[in-house]
Amino acid sequence: MPSVMEQINQKFKKAAVVDVRSGDTVRVHQKIREGAKERVQIFEGLVIRTDRKGSHTSSITVRRVASGIGVEKTYLMHSPLVIKVEVTKRSKVRRKYLSYMRARTGKSARLSATVFDKEAVNAVHDKKAEAEEVKLHEEAQASHDADAADKLKEDAKLEAKAAEVVAKHEETAKEVS
């Protein structure tokens, strides 16, 4: 019989996650909440570290160079904020922690790619996460439609006001003549 801690851990663990290894180039889709709005931010980079693979606290550290500055982010694989992780390139490495990549730039930072089946690796279907992504997309679409309707109403008000001003101007012109 599993302990209480194991039951809690299993409850928050995702059904399936992508098999990510050190040396992979990945795109991480993360949900960002800014005030009342939510959006999905994509961070693409090299996985320089994988930790605790079998655990519900498994994490990856992704590194990329943005504007000449190295940026590293650590993601918990089973976090509800991480919507999707897709492997775009797999490289041949012999270590679990690629700390030496921090000091490398240019050609020396290249890793030799290996052939792998992208569809098979990235074909992880977590129905809950997919439903959440669809819901976010629908909410964004509804918000966009509401904004467009408000803009149309505002434009109609401005046109009515302009027509009123033109009519008043013509009436004043007739009175003067």
| Portion of residues within helices | 25-40%
Low-confidence stretches: none
Most strands sheet: 5 strands, antiparallel
Return the structural class: alpha+beta
Give the strand order of the largest sheet, numbering strands 1, 2, ... along the chain.
4-3-2-1-5
> What fold name goes in the CATH topology slot of the largest domain?
SH3 type barrels
Outline the structure in words:
This protein has helices spanning 4-12, 118-122, 127-176, and strands at residues 25-34, 37-51, 59-66, 69-76, 82-89. It is of the alpha+beta class. The chain has two domains: 4-125, SH3 type barrels (Roll), CATH 2.30.30.790; 127-177. Strands 4-3-2-1-5 form a five-stranded antiparallel β-sheet. The protein is elongated. The N and C termini lie far apart (99 Å).
Brief overview, please?
The protein is of the alpha+beta class and 177 residues long. It contains 3 helices and 5 strands, in the order αβββββαα.
Key descriptive features of the protein:
3 helices; elongated; 28% strand; alpha+beta; 177 residues; SH3 type barrels
What does the secondary structure layout of this molecule look like, with pairings?
Layout: H1 4-12, E1 25-34, E2 37-51, E3 59-66, E4 69-76, E5 82-89, H2 118-122, H3 127-176
Antiparallel strand pairs: 1-2, 1-5, 2-3, 3-4
